[in-house]
């Protein structure tokens, strides 16, 4: 029952308490202000940095590095077009560890896929690919920092220069700050978990939608956005406080800047665990809105999934040590929700390439026998009006409308 769960959770977690939304007053003016700021930032990254300095905020903006271009061997167009005649191309964000790496590995091994590993740490990704035994030539590492819109744009330019026709985009990367008392911010001054997990991916997916519509190959194109059970309040896991809740999205409309508006989507007090779960709701709503807007017209398959509880990944790197010790055995032996990184990679690879998984608008899950099924999303995560509102506010923030 609910009180028992709350008690269990706070014992286990040691940190979280459910916080009441404070109803922080935010208005459209501040959002318009942020919008204007973003438009300027898009014109020049120099100005972006100047604006950051002005607002006195340190963000995770990574200046463009020499590494941010495709590996030299991959820039040769003739080589790229030779390979594309036999291989499909998939971009996986956050392929340097956990689910993303395991998926990249599973796909690369088939020989049928060329994996673009879209990662913020080039060296880490290269090393990860090598130690996962990914065959040379089966992947390209390209720099992408989802917490900087400038970086997202540069990534898209780099990808286009590679000459590869895009078949599948997997929006997988995420950050989770469960112990943080104060919000952190992206290059554009947006709360970092929503900026990375939702807005960076929203921007990337909007830009690459065009690339998914090329006529060069005759494959089933897919756009996959990784969701999670913890964003779904129709499950036990989704009822562990703090629960996801986007409210009326007033904080997002205000730009999540923590100055004129709250850093939380619902306008409430900052809570890192809730910010992550909210961002996952955004991921699942975004997939459905893409489906409603573009599936019929483009034939692209839009999908989301819960890959299982991969309790050993880097996602929990910022959690307290006790949590990191207890979480894997807890999930393995008590909830039985645990899956290995390898198994989770096979699952996501299925959503990328299985000819039986072409249905669009689906949130996939797997039972204990590892059989996939179409899962039911929570009321909020399947609310079409909220999905539309989220889409429109996100567009406005990114100046995409
Ligand atoms: P990991 O931390 O292992 O992987 C996350 C990846 O995202 C890393 O490669 C990380 O890069 C990358 N990343 C983080 N920030 C950025 C950024 N700004 N720009 C580009 N890449 C970035 O976690 P998981 O593998 O567990 O998570 C993968 C997905 O699975 C997430 O969407 C998560 O929500 C989802 N998920 C995970 C579950 C679990 O139990 N673990 C359960 C349900 C869903 P770097 O290596 O440089 O840190
Ligand atoms: Mg949860 C069937 C029960 C189940 C499942 C599948 C998960 C998945 N969890 C379950 C139950 C419980 N969890 C229970 C009963 C508790 C209270 C003891 C509990 C607690 C808990 C915490 C503190 N669980 C957590 C946390 C985290 O910090 C993780 C989180 O919410 O990250 C956002 C987490 C998770 N539990 C899961 C999954 C998949 C996660 C992690 C990641 C995610 O959604 O991406």
From TrEMBL:
Keywords tagged on the record: Chlorophyll biosynthesis, Chloroplast, NADP, Oxidoreductase, Photosynthesis, Plastid, Transit peptide
Keyword Glycoprotein assigned: no
Compartmental location: Plastid, Chloroplast
InterPro entries per UniProt: NAD(P)-bd_dom_sf, Prochl_reduct, SDR_fam
Positions of region (Disordered): 59-87
Annotated metabolic or biological route of this protein: Porphyrin-containing compound metabolism; chlorophyll biosynthesis
Its EC number(s): 1.3.1.33
Catalytic activity, reaction form: chlorophyllide a + NADP(+) = protochlorophyllide a + NADPH + H(+)
A Pfam family assignment: adh_short
Entry coiled-coil feature ranges: none
Family membership noted in the UniProt record: Belongs to the short-chain dehydrogenases/reductases (SDR) family. POR subfamily.
Function: Phototransformation of protochlorophyllide (Pchlide) to chlorophyllide (Chlide).
Annotated PANTHER family: PROTOCHLOROPHYLLIDE REDUCTASE A, CHLOROPLASTIC, PROTOCHLOROPHYLLIDE REDUCTASE C, CHLOROPLASTIC
Cited NCBIfam families: LPOR
Protein name listed in UniProt: NADPH-protochlorophyllide oxidoreductase
Organism, as annotated: Sphagnum jensenii
């Amino acid at each position: 029952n609910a009180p028992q769960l709350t008690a269990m959770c706070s014992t286990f977690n040691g940190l979280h308490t459910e916080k009441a939304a404070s109803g922080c007053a935010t208005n459209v003016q501040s959002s318009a202000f942020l919008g204007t700021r973003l438009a300027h930032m898009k014109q020049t990254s120099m100005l972006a940095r100047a604006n950051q300095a002005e607002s006195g905020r340190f963000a995770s903006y990574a200046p463009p590095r020499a590494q941010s271009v495709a590996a030299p061997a991959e820039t040769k167009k003739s080589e790229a077009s030779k390979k594309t005649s036999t291989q499909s191309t998939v971009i996986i964000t956050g392929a340097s560890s956990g689910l993303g790496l395991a998926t990249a590995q599973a796909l690369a091994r088939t020989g049928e896929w060329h994996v673009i590993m879209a990662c913020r740490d080039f060296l880490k990704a290269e090393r990860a690919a090598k130690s996962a035994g990914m065959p040379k030539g089966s992947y390209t590492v390209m720099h992408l920092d989802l917490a900087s819109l400038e970086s997202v744009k540069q990534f898209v330019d780099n990808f286009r220069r590679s000459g590869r026709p895009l078949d599948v985009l997997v929006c997988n990367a995420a950050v989770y700050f469960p112990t943080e008392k104060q919000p952190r911010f992206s290059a554009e001054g947006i709360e970092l978990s929503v900026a990375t997990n939702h807005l960076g991916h929203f921007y990337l997916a909007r830009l690459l939608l065009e690339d998914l519509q090329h006529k060069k190959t005759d494959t089933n194109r897919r756009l996959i956005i990784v969701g999670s059970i913890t964003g779904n309040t129709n499950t036990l896991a989704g009822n562990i406080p703090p629960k996801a809740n986007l409210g009326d999205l007033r904080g997002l409309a205000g730009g999540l800047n923590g100055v004129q508006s709250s850093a939380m989507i619902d306008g409430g007090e900052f809570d890192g665990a809730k910010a992550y779960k909210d961002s996952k709701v955004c991921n699942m709503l975004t997939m459905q809105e893409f489906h409603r807007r573009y599936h019929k017209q483009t034939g692209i398959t839009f999908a989301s999934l819960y890959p299982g509880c991969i309790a050993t990944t880097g996602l929990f790197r910022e959690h307290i040590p006790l949590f990191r010790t207890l979480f894997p055995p807890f999930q393995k032996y008590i909830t039985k929700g645990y899956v290995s990184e390898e198994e989770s990679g096979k699952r996501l690879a299925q959503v990328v390439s299985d000819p039986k998984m072409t249905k669009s608008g689906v949130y996939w899950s797997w039972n204990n026998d590892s059989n996939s099924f179409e899962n039911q999303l929570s009321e909020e995560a399947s609310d079409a009006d909220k999905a539309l509102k989220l889409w429109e506010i996100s567009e406005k923030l990114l100046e995409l409308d």
